Each structure stands twice: as C-alpha cells, then as structure tokens.
Amino acid sequence: MIKDSLVQIIRIAVLFTLTFFLVTCTNGPSNKTKGNPGFDDNGMLAVIRLRGKLIATTSYNSTDYFIYRGDPMGYQYDLLRSFAAYLGVDLEIVIHNDLDKAFASLNKGDCDLIARNIIITKDRAGFVDFSEPLSQTRQVLVQRKPDNWRKMKTWDDVESHLIRNPIYLGGKTIYIPKNGSFRMRLQNLSNEIGDSINIVEINDKTQEQLIAMVANGDIDYTICEEDVALVNQDYFPDIDVGTPVSFPQNTAWAVRKGSQELVNEINAWLASYKKSSEWKLTYNKYFKNPRLGRSALDEYHIIKHGRISGYDDFLKSQSKLLGWDWRLLASIIFQESGFNSNITSWAGAFGMMQLMPATARKFGVDAQSPPQANIEAGVKFLKWLDSQFEDIVKDKNERQKFVLASYNVGIAHVYDAMRLAEKYNKNPFIWTNSVDSFMLDKSDPKYYNDSVVYYGYARGSETFNFVNKVFENYNYFKKLIN
Fold first, then answer.
1. Same domain for 327 and 426
2. Cα–Cα distance between 144 and 142 in angstroms, integer?
3. What is the pTM of this model?
C-alpha cells in the first residue's frame, strides 16, 4: 500500500514537472490550445502516457457507445479500447451527444480526443486536427415506404412512391438534429437543385429518434449517415434509406489543434489496425450483423407432433427450479436462438439462451458447452435475476416481465427505468404501462441524461418488444401445447 502511494506521488510529481516545462518553454501562440493558454499540445502524448489514461469523448447511441446486458459496447468504444491498449494506458469515456459540446470540451482540455465518425469539413479543420480517415460515408434520405407496401405486387410499385432523385426534395420539409453537418449539406443541395428545402433543426432529438419519427409517421423525412441508417432499417423495416443526398465523405477522429504527435500516433495505430482482421470484425459486428430476435409468427411450423422442440422434457425439469411454466422458458429460448445451439449474436452472446461471455463464465459455461449446459446456466441466471426483484415486485407474473427485460438489456437499465417511473409519479413496481414506457424513453437524451439514470443510453424499444414478443409466443404455445 505504502509502495503504491509512493509510486503515485512520483508520477504526479513527474506529470507536474512536465506540464510546467511545457508551459514555460512554449515558443509562441501558433501551437497553444485556445482553452489552455500557454499549453503546448505537442506534449499531449507524453501527458497521456504519464497520466496512464486516455480520456475520450463519444456519444450514446446504438452504434458508438452503450451498455448492453451489463457490458460496455459500441463501435467507437471498441476502437478506443484498442487504441488505449496500443498506448499502454487505461481508457476513460466522457459522453457528449451534442457535437458542438464535444468540440468545446476538447478545446477546453477536458478530453484528449473525440471518437466519433466526424465528417471532415474545411470549416472544422480550422479549429481541430483530424486523424487519417476511419471510413467513408454518405448522407442518405430517410423516408417511409407506402403504408401497404408489403401487399404491392412488385418492388417497382413500391419504388413509384419513393423519392429517388434529390431534385424532388424541392419544397419538402426535412427534420435534422441541431449542431450537425446536415444543415450545410441541405443548404448546398437546395442551391444545387435550384429550389428551396425547408430545414427544421430539432434541438432535443438524435438521429435515431428522428428515424423512429419517420417510421411512426410523425415526420416525413430526415437525413442520416448511411451506415447508421442501415442499422436502424433492421429495427424499422417500414423506412427506406436508399436515396443518397451527398457524395462520399471522409470521417475521422478529432484532436485539439496543434496536437501533431497525438495525430501521428493515432495514424500509426490505424495503419496497423486496418490491416488486422479485428478491424473488419468490429465494423461488421455493429453495422452488418442483424440484431433482431425471432418471431413465432414467422415460425409456426416449428411446432410438430405436439412438441415445441427436442428439448421439451429437459425444459420441464429446468423450469421447476424457476417455478415458471416450462412453455415460458421455451418462449425465451425460441426468441433468443430459435433453438439453434450454434448461433452467435452480433454482441457475442452464444448458445440456446444467448448468454453473454461474462455471464456464461459466471455460471460455468462457455461456447463449447453442450446445449443442456447452456440452458442450465441460463436458468440459473434467470433465477438470480428473479431474486433481485423478489422483495420489491411481489406479483409473480409482473416480476417475470422485469426479469425478462433484465435478461434482454441488463438489470442496470431496468433499475434506471424504475427510478424514472418513480420520479415521474408512476408505479416503479409495475411493468406494463409504467416502467416499460420509461424503458422506451431510455433512448431519449431528456431521460438518459436525467440525474436518476446511472447507465445512460439504451435502445429501450428492443427490450420493450422482447418482453412483449416472449409473452406473445408463450400465449401461442399455451394454446397449442398442453
């Protein structure tokens, strides 16, 4: 303990000495950080290493950074972990969904870099430095397919109702998040087509929320980066994202102006990282792999000869440990994996019950364990979750919904939704029409930035639908299987 304290004191002293040296030895204003007068940003790399920690800001959403089943995840998060490991330091994440606030935080010296797919523009290059491009993207129009598109005879019939040429956006109203690069693109597009586009900036809505508003019919159009739009199309099949409204644009990380050594180090890491299989696997994990569960409505044919699966007898014995109807347990497995023991999800969950690796280790199984062992571990996990709610949600049927929600998204997010329900004078111990509505709100900045929310963003609609779908399957199984 004393030795550790001495080491910490020495590190602080060295860091103070280096900072003093940088402050006193700077040669002029050309490489000084605006928010830190006299600080030479070319020393940032050494400061990060002496500090032993990289401080990066990113955004809460379904691709950059989020907590899923208790584990931090996200495309930018995984890249940052790799870069921090390359530097040999720890990682600290700071959340700023507003890009302008992220730039302000960077230039004040509150963080070392902004890890987002920031579109490189001439204006932005005037006040930050960019890494080498991480990727290219383009902005696409998000519009709604016609209401009866599934019943149309051909895809050409669907296409006839969609805007495919941006010239027809003249006179249309397009909603966009405030403080992004979308306004400039739409203004340029308006000039290019020689017609006005009504641009409405929404201060408190994210890209994903605006996409949901299009899907729900609340607004007609928004625009979005193509890779994010394609992810959201998995969740909202009624939207179309096939019309580009920009040429391909480079995206990159941003650092403070003058931080050339840090830029060089990021670029050196990127040059190596982009050659690895990890790069492609990480991108595919968040942008290519389907994320949705299964539906009994699409799979009625699995019930044959009065059985749900080949594991029915085993499920009956396991369900006794939970005190649940075995058909409810079967519905969970069906929704998670369709009884396919070899499936691995985009998030790394595996097996019949789609256990995350950390949870699987806790209950003594891994990806090579037989299906029965995976089910046993899943049942133990469900029983543990049930015990966390047993004293506060007395009604067994209601408690099952809290357990299912926790199984899907992680118990921490469910606790967040319960605290929100209590704050807004709803019953925190009732799921339906109470806590479930606040789970939906966990993707809204107004709520996930609330002081009673400890675990930030979650795609609450996925959890909301999971609980409903499991019970829908369960009710169907009850009708067919005695």
1. yes
2. 7
3. 0.64
- Closest listed residue to residue 246, CA positions, set 312, 316, 192, 320: 192
Which DSSP symbol is given to 226? H
Residue 259's CATH number:
3.40.190.10
Residue in this structure with the two tokens 């959201």, named with its chain if needed: 232
Parts of the chain with a pLDDT under 70: 1-42, 179-180, 289-306, 482
Quote the pLDDT of residue 482: 67
| Exposure string for 443-470, b = 16+ CB within 10 A, e = fewer | bbbebbebeebebbbbbbbbbbbbbebb
Claim to verify: residue 146 and residue 278 sit in the same structural domain: no
DSSP readout, 282-293? HHHHHHTS----
Residues 36 and 84 both lie in one domain: yes
Q: Are residues 145 and 231 in the same domain?
A: yes
pLDDT for the residue numbered 290 = 60
> Do 107 and 155 share a structural domain?
no
Domain that holds residue 79: 2-136+251-287
For residue 289, the model assigns a pLDDT of 65
The count of domains in the chain is: 3
* The pLDDT of residue 41: 60
CA angle 437–442–443, rounded 5-degree value: 115
> How far is residue 248 CA from its own chain's centroid?
23
Residue 90 confidence (pLDDT): 95
Phi-psi region of 305 (alpha: psi -120 to 50; beta: other; left: phi over 0): left
Same-domain status, 280 and 303: no
Full DSSP string of 151-214: G-SSHHHHHTTS--SGGGGTT-EEEEETTSSHHHHHHHHHHHHTS--EEEEETT--HHHHHHHH
Query: What's 143's DSSP letter?
Result: E
Q: Are 334 and 327 in contact (CB under 8 A)?
A: no
Q: Rounded to the nearest 5°, which phi and psi values hold at 67?
A: -105, 125
